[in-house]
Amino acid sequence: MSSVRGNILLVEDEEALAETLKLNLELENYHVLTAASGNVALKQFTDNNSILNLVLLDVMLPEINGFELCDKFKTINPNVPVVFLTAKNLSTEKITGLKLGAEDYITKPFELEELLLRIQNVIKRNPILLRKTFEFGKCKINFDTFEITDISGKSIELSKREIGLLKLLTENENKVISRDQIINQLWDVNENASSRTIDNFILGFRKHFEENPKEPKHFHSIRGVGYKFTA
Fold it and tell me: Up-side HSE of residue 187: CA atoms within 13 Å toward CB?
């Protein structure tokens, strides 16, 4: 399985275009989050900005327009590049977008190949720093120190392999990771890894991070396949 090339937030309220773009980006091995309105986009960015490589942003959106969103995004995390993707093609609007800190301004209609190339170039120019921490809800994971802050606010140190599994799951949010993928990533070939060990790690994560471990909202077991994390 090819590795993920980057995490992209696609903000587009035209459903057919959003689905087409998402499909083509995923075919290029990007992980794509989507939002069809300003408020949803703002929440997605607030929750995921530490792992985003790029935002593709329409201008004309319900609730909050793209220019306002770009301004808010840059306040939250100025390091995430924004590319406007819009039918608004007046030079004054393009200048507005660029003044807000956007990396590029692409007008519709556009050639898909050109868009993919420009996305690739923007991501290359703006490599994100290796993420040291990850936060969701009241919880926090520090990948450098192997420490977590659990649902009650308590600080706990985990093993290197537990932190490795947390990193793998959180970096592939909303995607199912198979047991084989986990074993290949976290164990050497000569080690005797078992699915039971992974199951125990997941049970431990639920005790640390879930309000109700018996009804998990973050760490899910997909029967016969693997595991999935949702923030």
Answer: 15
CB-CB contact of 183 with 201 (8 Å): no
Pair of tokens at residue 29: 């091995």
Q: Are 12 and 40 in contact (CB under 8 A)?
A: no
Looking at residue 191, its pLDDT comes to: 80
Strand partners, 33: 9
Asked whether residue 2 carries a pLDDT value surpassing 50, the answer given is no
219: Cβ contacts below 8 Å, ≥ 6 apart:
169, 202, 205, 206, 209, 210, 227, 228, 229
In degrees, to the nearest 5, what angle opens at C-alpha 162 toward C-alphas 160 and 164? Answer: 70
| Matching residue, tokens 């606010």 | 153
Nearest C-alpha neighbor of 206 from the set 144, 133, 136, 151: 151
Mean pLDDT of the chain: 88
Nearest to 165 by CA among 178, 154, 149: 178
**Token output for 95:** 């200048």
Report CA Rg, the chain: 19
Mean pLDDT across 102-116: 88
Provide the token pair at 84: 């406007």
- Residue spans of alpha helices (H) in 7-65: 15-27, 38-48
Domains along the chain? 6-125 (3.40.50.2300), 133-229 (1.10.10.10)
For residue 10, the cross-strand partners are 34, 56
Is the pLDDT at 1 greater than 60, yes or no?
no
